[in-house]
Write a structure and sequence with these properties.
The protein has 134 residues and is α+β, with helices and mostly antiparallel strands. The chain is built from 2 helices and 8 strands. A 6-stranded antiparallel beta sheet has the order 1-2-6-7-8-5.
């Protein structure tokens, strides 16, 4: 399953710009890592907030894709809490499904910095697109 998630990351023209590694993947749970590259930084030497939200959203969406009956997903909503500045990598992003319905999956995602400090957390909902829905 790790290879399938990595292939999804590589096939996404936007997310291919990030150097994601899939640490673990199983139905309803995903762990990613990404180096803290200077292109993700903003003045003040900390990670850009939009980049933080991007990796959180990517992890949530890819966590939805860990289920075999899901062909694709679309973010419906994501709420992000920025807890501390991200200044050190590599980043560890963990996503966990908290509830699965017939058409919507809810996830909680956490981003830890290179010192394993929790820097941001998000909750969100993703629309499930099944093979016959497209």
């Amino acid at each position: 399953m790790k290879e399938a998630i990595l292939n999804l990351l590589k096939s996404d023209n936007f997310l291919a710009n990030f150097d994601f590694a899939v640490e673990s993947a199983e139905p309803g749970h995903l762990e990613l890592s990404v180096p803290l590259d200077e292109k993700l930084m903003r003045p003040g030497d900390f990670m850009n907030g939009g980049a933080v939200m991007t990796v959180l959203d990517a992890a949530g969406g890819l966590c939805v894709m860990t289920f075999g009956d899901v062909a694709n997903e679309v973010t419906i909503n994501m709420n992000t809490n920025f807890l501390r500045a991200v200044k050190k990598g590599p980043l560890k992003i963990t996503a966990q499904v908290t509830k699965r319905g017939r058409k919507i999956i809810f996830c909680k995602i956490e981003l830890h910095d290179g010192d394993r400090k929790l820097c941001a957390e998000a909750t969100g909902s993703w629309l499930i697109i099944k093979p016959g829905d497209i």
